[in-house]
Amino acid sequence: MKNITDIRSDFPILDSKVYGKPLVYFDNGATTQKPRCVIDKLTEVLTMYNANIHRGVHSLSDKASEEYEKAREKVRSFINAGKREEVVFTSGTTGSINAVAFSFGERFIKKNDEIIISSLEHHANIVPWQMMCERKGARLRIIPINENGEIIPEEYFKLLSPKTKLVAVTQVSNSLGTVLPVSLIIEAAHALNIPVLIDGAQGVQHGITDVREMDCDFYVFSGHKIYGPAGIGVLYGKEKWLTELPPYQGGGDMVENVTFEKTTYNELPFKFEAGTMNFPAAIGLGTALDYVLTVGRDNIEEREKELLSYATKRLSGIDRLKIFGNSASKISTISFLLKDIHQYDTGMILDKLGIAVRTGTHCAQPVMDRFGIDGTVRASMCFYNTKEEIDLLGTGIEKVISMFS
Amino acid sequence: MTVNQVQDSIVDEFSSFDDWIDKYNLLIDMGKDLPAIDPRFKIKDFLIEGCQSKVWLHPGFMEGKIYFTADSDAIITKGIVGLLIRVLSGRTPDEIISAELYFIDKIGLRQNLSPTRSNGLLSMVRQMKLYAMAYKATGQRPPVNGKNE
User: Fold this and answer.
1) pLDDT digit string (tens) for A273-297?
2) In A, which residues are within 8 Å of B21 by CB distance?
3) DSSP-derived pairing of the beta strands A321-324 and A263-265
4) Residue B146 falls within a domain, yes or no?
5) Given Cys at both, which of A183, A198, A235, A305 links A88, Cβ 3.0 to 4.6 Å?
């Protein structure tokens, strides 16, 4: 495996300073930094073959289209989808979930049907379903969580019924870092022939995701959280579902034949890619996935596990610090609060010390409600972070405590 | 002191510190020293939207002047609203409406607060000016949610 110095030198931004202090970037759950190869790839696209894809007869357009389709193949292989037709590019996780919520809703949802989600969802995996339920007169059911921030499987089993038409859960909680037992969730739903969507926004970058082994019906994630550019995301769907679902947006490239009387749609995956896609970002995502494979997903998983255990130990040793989300199965994210110190105050001072964390509800208000708090401080680490940075966070937190006491 | 004299003295106080941590320590002290708001006013009606932390701001009206009290669940925010109160409280509606708050930029508050946070600060200023405008227009305290307290 590449050593940490080499890895860090792949990410130009990690060298920067904030208020004259070396940047400690612990907001990877919000977005990850980009390796040089991704930045270079974007420059390459824009300087060498910027042209609209799937349209021109000229060579630039051909080259851009070819690179775009290569990126699709990289995504397919990365998540081990069966066919490239099952990989749709979108604007991001939010775009992917909205697409499924709309198309699936139009095709399959009737009054009094039910959709199951969990209490750990990001707003992106709550609101689109609420909108769909409102449109269709359907109902949202919620899997509760326990004190450790884990879903309660027995409660989930109780919610499953003939009324259930879809289960949509996150692979990993963005606010607490809990890894959900997705295989169990999928197996139970499939026993009743209910399809399952997995929100992989916080999962795909932390280890090996194999959609065929997982057997999920839909899998969605964002490019910018896996070291790729923003504005690109992926919607994987089993071919049988994507074939049955109507398109959610109409426009160019998604059509086969257009007359004012009747339009027929293009084949998969283009049926779901209306208009000019963010092809530079898609191509950049392909490069980001190559990079992740070069570092090695098992290496990433192992390094992040080490960081989590080191950080948990370091932070737990701080008096007045309480960690939210204590599942044995977590990614390298720690959500915490300091007794009698508002998360905003903590975040402001850490920022001044050069440490970037996220404060607030993390777009997961129901999780905060469950714990009776109105936000946390979240340090989300990834493989390019170091134990020295965790020590800086530790002393930073101690400084915060001394300032507010 | 005029609005600008108060602003200038705040700028002076902050300019004696080079390090932002020290400036924050000053804000924290100001937050801790902020006179308490009447608990009756810590209700949704006096909550300011657009802040990352909760801010309650209450206008009191006496002899043509507006007296603000405030609270926040975050100390730094309390310090910031405390600065605004120092500059704008106990003034006539006209003074509040026409006040140009240059101290925010001069002490580096705006640059040092991200847009969402800065919006919180601007929301506080906007709310103070709105109260002043309403008071000026009606000559009495503005109704809260359609009713007078």
Assistant:
1) 999 999 999 999 999 999 999 999 9
2) 349, 352-353, 403
3) unpaired
4) no
5) A235
Domains of chain A: 4-30+296-404 (3.90.1150.10), 39-293 (3.40.640.10)
Domain for residue B44, yes or no?
yes
CATH of the domain at B43: 3.90.1010.10
Mean pLDDT of A104-131: 98
**CA–CA dist B87, A261 (Å, integer):** 67
Q: Which residues of A372-402 are buried (b: 16+ CB within 10 A; e: fewer)?
A: eeebbbbbbbbbbbbeebbebbbebbeebbe
B13-36 mean pLDDT? 90
With an 8 Å Cβ cutoff, the interface of chain A facing chain B consists of: 19, 341-342, 344-345, 348-349, 352-353, 359-360, 374, 403-404
pLDDT digits (tens, 9 = 90+) for B83-97: 999 999 999 999 999
User: Minimal Cα–Cα distance from B24 to chain A, Å?
Assistant: 8
Structural domain contains residue B73: yes
Lateral strand order in the sheet of A196-199: A87-90, A233-237, A218-222, A196-199, A164-170, A114-118, A139-143
Separation CA A114–CA A132 (nearest Å):
11
To test the contact with chain A by mutation, choose from B23, B25, B54, B75 the residue with the greatest count of A C-beta atoms within 10 A, namely: B75
Tell me the DSSP string of A120-171.
T--GGGTHHHHHHHHHHT-EEEEE-B-TTS-B-HHHHHHH--TTEEEEEEES
End-to-end Cα spacing for chain A: 44
Higher pLDDT, B143 or A159: A159
Other CB atoms within a 10 A radius of the CB of residue A111 amount to 8
Largest distance between two CA atoms of chain A: 72
Asked whether A11 and A36 are in contact (CB, 8 A), the reply is yes
Nearest to A239, CA basis, from A94, A15, A55, A86: A86
B147, part of any domain: no
Residue A166 structure tokens: 């879809």
Which residues span the domain enclosing B28? 3-138
